[in-house]
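Revision sheet: structure tokens.
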Amino acid sequence: MNKKAMPVRRFAIASAIATGALLFAAPGATGADAPNPKARVAFQACAACHSDKAGVTRLGPSLAGIFGKPAAQAKGFRYSPALAKAKLRWDRKTLDAFIANPKAVVPGNRMSYPGVSDPAKRAAIIDYMQGLR
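Predicted:
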């Protein structure tokens, strides 16, 4: 290898290592912000219709960043008139009730999911949602 290429190669290797280290240490990726593995598994009950990535709409809207916010606010998603008028805020208590029985909390909403009866599983789903940004 010629001597002129050595500094470029060293820079490329150092850049790759630094980039990898930054990605590994990104907020939310490790440490206290890392999602609980049980919570991630529990969220799979929602993942068929909802994404955990911001701006990704499936059958339902993305659930990223909704914790603590008013319901029916995701841009680009057409909510049922019932949910749009419900004036809910997605806090733990409201999410727990809604995940348990969406039709009881907001009669006339379009979500066909029957709900999650297990309180521990609902709590895990809410924990996961609370960590989504």
